[in-house]
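R.M. (postdoc): so does anyone remember the format we settled on? I'll just put the C-alpha coordinates first.
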Protein backbone atom coordinates (compact mmCIF):
# COMPACT_ATOMS: atom_id res chain seq x y z
CA UNK A 1 0.00 0.00 0.00
CA UNK A 2 1.09 3.57 -0.56
CA UNK A 3 1.95 5.97 2.24
CA UNK A 4 -1.29 7.83 1.56
CA UNK A 5 -3.27 4.60 1.86
CA UNK A 6 -1.60 3.80 5.19
CA UNK A 7 -2.46 7.26 6.51
CA UNK A 8 -6.08 6.97 5.33
CA UNK A 9 -6.52 3.57 6.94
CA UNK A 10 -4.88 4.83 10.13
CA UNK A 11 -7.28 7.77 10.17
CA UNK A 12 -10.25 5.41 9.79
CA UNK A 13 -9.04 3.29 12.71
CA UNK A 14 -8.55 6.44 14.80
CA UNK A 15 -12.06 7.64 13.93
CA UNK A 16 -13.56 4.29 14.92
CA UNK A 17 -11.75 4.47 18.25
CA UNK A 18 -12.83 8.08 18.82
CA UNK A 19 -16.47 7.24 18.09
CA UNK A 20 -16.32 4.33 20.53
CA UNK A 21 -14.84 6.55 23.23
CA UNK A 22 -17.44 9.27 22.56
CA UNK A 23 -20.29 6.78 22.88
CA UNK A 24 -19.05 5.50 26.25
CA UNK A 25 -18.20 8.95 27.64
CA UNK A 26 -21.49 10.53 26.53
CA UNK A 27 -23.58 7.74 28.04
CA UNK A 28 -25.65 8.31 31.13
CA UNK A 29 -23.26 8.63 34.07
CA UNK A 30 -20.11 8.88 31.94
CA UNK A 31 -17.31 6.43 32.59
CA UNK A 32 -18.28 5.80 36.22
CA UNK A 33 -21.58 4.09 35.40
CA UNK A 34 -22.47 1.00 33.40
CA UNK A 35 -25.29 0.48 30.95
CA UNK A 36 -28.07 -1.14 32.97
CA UNK A 37 -28.69 -4.30 31.00
CA UNK A 38 -28.08 -7.93 31.88
CA UNK A 39 -25.13 -8.37 29.52
CA UNK A 40 -23.21 -5.41 30.92
CA UNK A 41 -23.74 -6.58 34.48
CA UNK A 42 -22.58 -10.08 33.48
CA UNK A 43 -19.34 -8.68 32.02
CA UNK A 44 -18.76 -6.51 35.10
CA UNK A 45 -19.29 -9.56 37.31
CA UNK A 46 -16.89 -11.55 35.12
CA UNK A 47 -14.14 -8.97 35.57
CA UNK A 48 -14.69 -8.83 39.32
CA UNK A 49 -14.89 -12.63 39.62
CA UNK A 50 -11.56 -13.19 37.85
CA UNK A 51 -9.88 -10.38 39.79
CA UNK A 52 -11.06 -11.73 43.15
CA UNK A 53 -10.69 -15.47 42.59
CA UNK A 54 -7.85 -15.61 40.08
CA UNK A 55 -9.90 -18.16 38.11
CA UNK A 56 -9.26 -17.10 34.54
CA UNK A 57 -10.06 -20.50 33.07
CA UNK A 58 -12.46 -20.86 30.16
CA UNK A 59 -14.86 -22.77 32.39
CA UNK A 60 -14.60 -20.45 35.39
CA UNK A 61 -17.05 -17.89 34.02
CA UNK A 62 -19.81 -20.51 34.11
CA UNK A 63 -19.99 -20.22 37.88
CA UNK A 64 -21.28 -16.64 37.64
CA UNK A 65 -24.63 -17.75 36.19
CA UNK A 66 -24.78 -21.22 37.68
CA UNK A 67 -24.25 -22.91 34.35
CA UNK A 68 -23.47 -26.63 34.50
CA UNK A 69 -19.93 -27.38 35.61
CA UNK A 70 -17.45 -27.25 32.76
CA UNK A 71 -19.45 -24.78 30.65
CA UNK A 72 -17.19 -22.91 28.23
CA UNK A 73 -17.23 -19.12 27.90
CA UNK A 74 -14.59 -17.14 25.95
CA UNK A 75 -13.15 -14.73 28.48
CA UNK A 76 -10.24 -12.78 26.96
CA UNK A 77 -12.20 -9.55 27.47
CA UNK A 78 -12.68 -10.38 31.13
CA UNK A 79 -9.04 -11.37 31.62
CA UNK A 80 -7.89 -8.03 30.24
CA UNK A 81 -10.50 -6.28 32.39
CA UNK A 82 -9.39 -8.10 35.53
CA UNK A 83 -5.78 -7.15 34.83
CA UNK A 84 -6.70 -3.48 34.29
CA UNK A 85 -8.87 -3.56 37.42
CA UNK A 86 -6.08 -4.94 39.59
CA UNK A 87 -3.30 -2.76 38.18
CA UNK A 88 -5.24 0.50 38.11
CA UNK A 89 -7.16 0.19 41.36
CA UNK A 90 -10.22 1.81 39.76
CA UNK A 91 -13.80 0.69 40.23
CA UNK A 92 -15.35 -2.08 38.15
CA UNK A 93 -17.56 0.34 36.15
CA UNK A 94 -14.58 2.51 35.21
CA UNK A 95 -12.56 -0.58 34.29
CA UNK A 96 -15.42 -2.00 32.22
CA UNK A 97 -15.75 1.24 30.28
CA UNK A 98 -11.98 1.63 29.84
CA UNK A 99 -11.70 -1.86 28.39
CA UNK A 100 -14.75 -1.30 26.17
CA UNK A 101 -13.66 2.03 24.66
CA UNK A 102 -10.93 0.74 22.30
CA UNK A 103 -12.97 -2.22 20.99
CA UNK A 104 -14.23 -0.50 17.81
CA UNK A 105 -10.70 0.60 16.95
CA UNK A 106 -9.29 -2.86 17.62
CA UNK A 107 -11.99 -4.43 15.46
CA UNK A 108 -11.22 -1.97 12.66
CA UNK A 109 -7.50 -2.71 13.00
CA UNK A 110 -8.18 -6.46 12.82
CA UNK A 111 -10.18 -5.96 9.62
CA UNK A 112 -7.35 -3.88 8.16
CA UNK A 113 -4.88 -6.67 8.94
CA UNK A 114 -7.20 -9.24 7.36
CA UNK A 115 -7.69 -7.20 4.18
CA UNK A 116 -3.95 -6.57 3.94
CA UNK A 117 -3.10 -10.24 4.50
CA UNK A 118 -5.58 -11.35 1.85
CA UNK A 119 -4.02 -8.95 -0.64
CA UNK A 120 -6.91 -6.51 -0.73
CA UNK A 121 -6.62 -2.87 -1.65
CA UNK A 122 -6.43 -0.21 1.04
CA UNK A 123 -9.79 1.21 -0.01
CA UNK A 124 -11.45 -1.98 1.29
CA UNK A 125 -9.71 -1.63 4.65
CA UNK A 126 -10.75 1.98 5.20
Amino acid sequence: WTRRAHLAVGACVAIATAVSIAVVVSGRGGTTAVFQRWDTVFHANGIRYIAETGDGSLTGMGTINWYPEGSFYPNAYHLVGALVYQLSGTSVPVTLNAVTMPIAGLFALALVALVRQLGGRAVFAG
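R.M.: ...and that's the designed sequence above, right after the C-alpha coordinates. Also worth knowing: The mean pLDDT is 87. The first helix runs from residue 3 to 26.
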